[in-house]
Amino acid sequence: MNRIYIEHISKVMGINLWQAEHCADLIEEGATIPFISRYRKERTGGLDEVQVTEIKHYYIKFTELDKRKAAVIKSIQEQDKLTGELKAAIEETLDENILEDIYLPFKPKRKTRASVARELGLEPLAAGIFELTCIDCKSEAEKYLGENVENTKDALSGARDIISEWISEIAQVRDTVRKYSYKTGVIKVSPFRKGEGEETSKYSNYFDFSQKITDIPAHRILAVLRGHKEGELSVKLEIADNEPEKIIRSIVFKKNSNPSESSKKEVETAIEDSYKRLLAPSIENEILKIAKEKADLESVKVFGENLSALLLASPVGQKRVLAIDPGFRTGCKVVCLDAQGDLLYNDTIYPHPPQNEKIPAMRKISYLAEAYKIEAIAIGDGTAGRETEAFIKKIALPPGVEVFSVSEDGASVYSASDIAREELPGYDVTVRGAVSIGRRMMDPLAELVKIDPKSLGIGQYQHDVDQKLLKEMLDSTVERCVSKVGVNLNTASKHLLSYVSGIGSSLAKNITEHRSINGPFRSRKDLIKVKRLGDKVFEQCAGFLRIPDSANPLDNSAVHPERYQLVEKMAGDLKCTVSDLIKEQQIREKLDIKRYVSEEVGLPTLSDIINELSKPGRDPREKAKIFEFSSDFKTIEDLNPGMVLPGIVTNITNFGAFVDIGIKQDGLVHISQISDKYVSNPSEVVKLQQHVKVRVVDVDLKRGRIQLSMKNLSSVSSGQ
Fold this sequence. Notes:
Layout: H1 3-13, H2 17-28, H3 33-39, H4 41-44, H5 49-78, H6 84-92, H7 96-103, H8 113-119, H9 123-130, H10 137-141, H11 152-168, H12 171-184, E1 186-191, E2 209-212, H13 218-229, E3 233-238, H14 243-252, H15 261-311, E4 321-325, E5 332-337, E6 343-349, H16 358-371, E7 376-380, H17 385-392, E8 402-406, H18 411-415, H19 418-423, H20 429-442, H21 444-448, H22 467-485, E9 487-488, H23 494-497, H24 504-518, H25 535-541, E10 545-546, H26 564-573, H27 578-583, H28 585-588, H29 603-613, E11 644-653, E12 656-660, E13 667-670, E14 691-700, E15 705-709
Parallel strand pairs: 4-7, 7-8, 9-10, 13-15
Antiparallel strand pairs: 1-2, 1-3, 4-5, 5-6, 11-12, 11-14, 12-13, 14-15
Helix pairs in contact: 1-2, 2-5, 3-5, 7-12, 8-11, 9-11, 11-15, 12-14, 12-15, 13-15, 14-15, 15-22
């Protein structure tokens, strides 16, 4: 990567040059974020996943910028106008806007007022005036009169059009005005059409809204831009004073400190026209784009944090499960799954109106729980969810059977997907949906990777942000979560395997096909036998794959195969086996890891190895805990201000957290109500799926909105 990019990354991130350079080199070599942050700590100086992700974002951004630079240089070169100075200016810029400023004078143009004036032969007149030396511009303009230019007024007007365009294309002018406008500009928002549906519009909160562009939160800029796109809001950037024109004058007149009065008058008129007609609209668009890009980054970060919390939610584990997709009129779809999540049985019960077949439904559930030795029951939290949960809890279930409410977000998307049809051929969408609910209780990560994250009901304005940036964040988040937990090589689906560091969908398919033909993998090194899985991919993925029954116990740990020999040396030095080293803490305590430091392996990696030996293959996620909503209310009409209720955090945005309190509408805990202390980001206090206590502040029955607070409460529980 270009040195100027490395220096920029180092500066903005506050890291050493060599850290940024080495990390960028690893990314260029094809290393993944989890692999770099876990297994190349010495090379990067211990950069964590968040830092490596940020460097990768810059790497992608600057790679695209380099492509654009090459195209600009080629275009200018073809015009035979590329100078050494111009080329250097292009190559040294870090800002896409500045690059476009440099290119603007050379960019092929559509027909403009200036191009019309040039066709009339007025460019020499414009050049003379712009030099600020023309003593009498009117007399000079007379020289250009002819068939197409009837009078001096038209000649001077055309010349000013050309000068206006020149001014708007001066890179220093554009950059300085843009920076000033961004620093001082105010977003002014109003209804696009006064009086039309103002009271019922979802954008009514923004009908008389203004805020400095530098202060506007991400969710607000995305909201007003969406309203503008939908034709409901008028959005303008206002600059309170005439400073931009002063800035332009100082730059333009700098080349001649003693301009002629006649030239000065014409150029000042051109400056005013250039700013109002050309610069202001263009720069307004650029600044709104900058604000949008900033909002996109913040929103995508929130989405990533939410997705991470959702994927790493507490699993019930491998248990025999009865799962229910609730419903009223169509009944409740019931499925029984074995401990591996395979479907054993499905049926439908009708305990709710209009059928009210409660007794047969109770008998059916009791029978299934006994017959399939059910250990846990999963109930979808959608329509009829609470009613079904209350019904199930009235049944005399076998001892130890726990009942969980499970989020249905995305279950319908999965049930209608190609993945679901492939996994459950011959079953309808209702059966597939119930199976998904049961499996996501057993292992949220393994099940949710099959669903497009945008269908999971998390984040803010996900359809408005840059979709390429969003995909980049979501893919890296899923990969990071999968790598953190680790994947059983012999039981994981190809969809889960596809998110393991370095593998992807094609190799995941090859792995599962190899497994079905040749049986379970007996060691990590057997991966090399998989079609198209070479040494580089093996290096990237091996440490994140687990083989619990392998003869080598390190195959069920996060110790990378490249360090097996080192661990064997440690065991040999202590005259024990690797298994003894894993099982016996007293033996591990005898190790002096400093003895094993080398040019390739430092203390960070050695410490990771020792930590992993103490808990090989252990799932880092907490076990799932049962949660119960208050039974005192079922609808928004039952709520009153002051009520303190249990709830589950279902979504986190920059402006607050949404909490499910057991009715159809989630309530909003505004960021100002999320903690007794000042909070700049709700995720500092709560996480997705966290169990909390909330107090009802306000209930808006007309709009179906519930305002909640977590202030002055012991609001946050430690579990999920």
